[in-house]
């Protein structure tokens, strides 16, 4: 999840439940333990310097669209444009997702697919993986837009996505806390760990910002934990997204406190709106 392309749980308190296939991260993340290195999301989380790396998405800038040697199926080479505005200047207006062929090539480079046998992730599953990942990323952005709504209304400008990084091997403090609570109180919390984590850096419109690289915007880091949810009434798996601003500053802490207390205030005191 969270991978875009640039050319040059009970624990889910965000309330965003997304239904689709498959039941866990389609790139083979473990839902029972936190992994590291090549066991993480193969598209995003590499540390080897293969070709020139784009600092905004931590991906090689020029990953081939060409069919891999030994590949049996013809995979689409068309890329899908997301609804997420790009924050880095001088490039396309919106982020683009990689094509299924690019994704396949990326997974081979990360050792997630045997180039001779295609084992672990079948070739015929790649297109559905791309669809699910794109779908979940769009859901993440909608959650962020909800968090940013009051700032967008104040400035009459929309936020943009500047940068993102996958961190599948780094448990967020919140995810760790939920897991401990699930162990101690299994009837109220789930001990299941997220199968992935991303940090997204969003540009929030702010005329008072002193950011010289992005004038008129302030950088806000979001933490996103991805959980596998139970099957829905139709037997389809679901995903839970826990999206929230990182506790990097007082404003983010205040926004999170307000988000947590508003439903309680509404329940016990009602709304002031007539």
From TrEMBL:
<keyword id="KW-0472">Membrane</keyword>
<dbReference type="InterPro" id="IPR000511">
    <property type="entry name" value="Holocyt_c/c1_synthase"/>
</dbReference>
<feature type="region of interest" description="Disordered">
    <location>
        <begin position="1"/>
        <end position="40"/>
    </location>
</feature>
<keyword id="KW-0479">Metal-binding</keyword>
<keyword id="KW-0456">Lyase</keyword>
<keyword id="KW-0496">Mitochondrion</keyword>
<dbReference type="GO" id="GO:0046872">
    <property type="term" value="F:metal ion binding"/>
</dbReference>
<dbReference type="Pfam" id="PF01265">
    <property type="entry name" value="Cyto_heme_lyase"/>
</dbReference>
<comment type="similarity">
    <text>Belongs to the cytochrome c-type heme lyase family.</text>
</comment>
<dbReference type="GO" id="GO:0004408">
    <property type="term" value="F:holocytochrome-c synthase activity"/>
</dbReference>
<protein>
    <recommendedName>
        <fullName>Holocytochrome c-type synthase</fullName>
        <ecNumber>4.4.1.17</ecNumber>
    </recommendedName>
</protein>
<keyword id="KW-0349">Heme</keyword>
<dbReference type="GO" id="GO:0005743">
    <property type="term" value="C:mitochondrial inner membrane"/>
</dbReference>
<keyword id="KW-0999">Mitochondrion inner membrane</keyword>
<keyword id="KW-0408">Iron</keyword>
<comment type="function">
    <text>Lyase that catalyzes the covalent linking of the heme group to the cytochrome C apoprotein to produce the mature functional cytochrome.</text>
</comment>
